[in-house]
Amino acid sequence: MIEFSKEETDRLTRKIQLYFNDELDQDIGQFPARFLLDFFSEEIGPYYYNRGLMDAQQVLETRLSEAIYELEKPISD
Q1: Pick from 5, 6, 3, 26: which is nearest to 16 by CA?
Q2: How far is C-alpha 72 from the geometric centre of its chain's CA atoms?
Q3: DSSP secondary-structure letter at 3?
Q4: pLDDT digits over 59-72, tens only?
Q5: How far is the CA of 39 from the CAs of 5, 16, 29, 68, in angstroms?
Q6: What's the pTM value of the predicted model, to 2 decimals?
Q7: With the CA atoms of 13, 18, 21 and 22 taken in that order, what torsion angle do they form, in degrees rounded to the nearest 10?
Q8: Spacing of C-alpha 29 from chain mean position
Q9: Both ends of the chain: CA-CA distance in Å?
């Protein structure tokens, strides 16, 4: 589960409340918004986390490959 600081949790909970109000025209209390945040953190968060790791791995592999290519010594026949 992804864990957030109290300040982050409060900010994210408020964003959920605002989203429900602005986009769905529904009021949602602090506790239901927090439960929704907990659900996304536990059930959806790992997908985003793993995607971030895959993206980072791809960037590192590309940079490492480029760095190794730059280290190669020219060979003359």
Answers
A1: 26
A2: 36
A3: -
A4: 999 999 999 988 88
A5: 16, 12, 15, 43
A6: 0.73
A7: -150
A8: 25
A9: 57
